[in-house]
Specification:
- By secondary structure, the protein is mainly beta.
- The chain is built from three helices and 24 strands.
- Strands 5, 6, 7, 8, 9, 12, 13, 16, 17, 18 and 22 form an eleven-stranded mixed β-sheet that branches. Strands 19, 20, 21, 23 and 24 form a five-stranded antiparallel β-sheet that branches.
């Protein structure tokens, strides 16, 4: 299958598409504007094989323009059951970057696109803002490192410094970021293996993982160092991913993941901080652009705040079949230990018409045990 993956400078990855006997082709083209991810649903006519275990993965490795691509790994079969282990190399199926799994998180997904049975439905209470009861389903996410060579190419589609934490000093508004750290859903993992001892370039790779060629296959040849285990245990409170909220409006799916960051004192009051990660994905074929955001933020103290503005994090991303997703993180603070957020994104079509995409409502909850984030990730 290697031959059908190489096509005039394309970086092509092949994966099995759910239960169908077709393959998903992810073509990443290196150009002046970075990497463009394409996702046409095409069968592999050259080989017609039902699995991808021996597919070769080609990468440009950020070589100068005009240089040939080179093989950096071999695809492995997707895990339909169970989870990927620490040290698993992968490609992100949406954003295309190379990465490595550090450890898993078991989250609860609240998918508002899944309609509960009639017997399980309950009447909506007054003032519920059009909410409906959604039952959570356990799903696996992974804490991963992103290859720093790929960060410049994905920065317009996904923030590479999205994982932040509070500082350990008097300035309650000071935030720090860990570059190249991400959360990835199980279905976004395209696993591969490599014979390189350092296949991922990241300052924490060799601090967290060690090459172990004698490790029994099919397990990854990388094992967790004690430093990774200690770092995970120490920073678990503010890294923890627990709830994921998802809703689709007119083929635009919005996924929200909130994180509690901790509490700080400010002007004789407590200020509680949360980080939230949002991913917008165009599930259809129509090109659209995000124009505005409209948030409603309710605090347990009884306040209701409305926030409107152009775009998100200073951008108005275009969502197309070629580049269907955009992911970003932001922050919110309340003078109460809990609250709720919900809202809409104003989306514009190519003909100039607009429609509103719902942001699924999600809770802002603080933990009973106060978290004390570390001063940094120096090991």
């Amino acid at each position: 299958m290697a031959a059908c993956a190489i096509r005039r400078g394309f970086l092509t990855t092949v994966s099995k598409y759910k239960k169908k006997h077709t393959h998903r082709i992810l073509s990443i083209i290196e150009g002046s504007s970075g990497l463009q991810v394409k996702r046409p649903w095409l069968p592999c006519l050259a080989c017609r094989l039902p699995n991808i275990q021996q597919t070769r993965f080609i990468s440009s490795r950020n070589r100068p323009e005009g240089k040939v691509l080179e093989t950096v790994g071999v695809f492995e079969a997707l895990k339909q059951h169970g989870k990927y282990e620490t040290g698993q190399l992968f490609l992100h199926s949406v954003f295309g970057y190379r990465g490595v799994v550090l450890f898993p998180w078991h989250a609860r997904i609240y998918d508002r696109d899944v309609i509960p049975p009639v017997s399980d439905s309950k009447p909506e209470p007054p003032g519920s803002h059009g909410s409906k009861e959604v039952k959570g389903k356990t799903h696996t996410y992974y804490q991963v490192l992103i290859d720093t060579r790929d960060c410049p190419h994905i920065s317009q589609r996904s923030q590479t410094e999205a994982v932040t934490f509070l500082a350990n000093h008097d300035d309650s508004r000071a935030l720090y970021a860990i570059p190249g750290l991400d959360y990835v859903s199980h279905e976004d993992i395209l696993p591969y293996n490599s014979t390189e001892q350092v296949p991922i370039q990241h300052e924490l790779f060799e601090r967290f993982l060690m090459f172990n060629p004698d490790k029994t296959t099919p397990a990854p040849p990388f094992s967790a160092r004690d430093t990774l285990k200690a770092w995970q245990e120490k920073n678990h409170p503010w890294l923890e991913l627990s709830d994921v909220h998802r809703e689709t409006t007119e083929n635009i799916r919005v996924t929200v993941i909130p994180f509690y960051m901790g509490m700080r004192d400010a002007q004789n009051s407590h200020v509680y901080w949360w980080r939230y990660c949002i991913r917008l994905e165009n599930m259809g074929s129509e090109v659209v652009q995000l124009r505005e955001r409209h948030w409603r933020i309710f605090s347990l103290s009884g306040t209701l705040e409305t926030v409107r503005g152009r775009g998100v994090v200073g951008r108005e991303p275009v969502l197309s079949k070629e580049q269907p997703a955009f992911q970003y993180s932001s922050h919110v603070s309340l003078q109460a230990p809990s609250g709720h957020m919900w809202g809409t994104f104003r989306i514009e079509r190519t003909d100039g018409s607009h429609f509103d995409v719902r942001i699924p409502p999600f809770s802002l909850e603080s933990n009973k045990d106060e978290k004390v984030p570390p001063a940094g990730y120096t090991l």
